[in-house]
Amino acid sequence: MANIKSQKKRIRTAEVARIRNKAIKSELKTLIKHVHAAVEAGDKAAASAAATRANRALDKAVAKGVIHKNQAANRKSGVQHLVNSME
Questions:
Q1: Dist. CA 20–CA 51, nearest whole Å
Q2: Separation CA 16–CA 29 (nearest Å)
Q3: Residue 87 above 90 pLDDT?
Q4: Phi and psi for 67 in degrees, rounded to 5?
Q5: Which of 50, 55, 57, 87 could be stapled to 35 by a disulfide with Cβ–Cβ 3.0 to 4.6 Å?
Q6: 35 with 50: CB under 8 angstroms?
Q7: What's the confidence (pLDDT) of residue 86?
Q8: How far is Cα 53 from Cα 35, in angstroms, rounded to an integer?
Q9: Which of 14, 27, 12 is closest to 67 using CA atoms?
Q10: Residue 25 gets which letter from DSSP?
Q11: Superfamily of domain 26-84
């Protein structure tokens, strides 16, 4: 356990950030799973809508610093590739 006051605060703030980031990452995984499910079902409209929601969430995660912009770009590319492969 830290003795320095500022380090005690950093431990608390880091824990809050960890919990928030974990929730955001979990939501990203869920949204991407929705895209996969729509593609498996063969519903192009639902897959496209789910991809839009996933892309928006990925962009927000980048803005909040939860994931790196290149990782978001890679995931968005994969999601869009799935939707485009339905034709």
A1: 23
A2: 20
A3: no
A4: -130, 160
A5: 50
A6: yes
A7: 85
A8: 9
A9: 27
A10: H
A11: Ribosomal protein S20 (1.20.58.110)
Give the Cα separation of 74 and 43 in Å (integer).
Answer: 23
For the packed helices 44-63 and 5-41, what is the interaxial angle rounded to 10 degrees? 170
Parse the chain into domains and list their residue ranges: 26-84
Q: Which residues have C-beta within 8 Å of that of residue 61, sequence separation ≥ 6?
A: 24, 25, 28, 67, 72
What's the pLDDT tens digit per position in 16-45? 999 999 999 999 999 999 999 999 999 999
Mean pLDDT in the chain? 96
| This prediction's pTM | 0.87
Residue 64 carries which DSSP code? T
Structure tokens at 58: 């990925």
Q: How many Cβ atoms sit within 10 Å of the Cβ of residue 39? A: 19
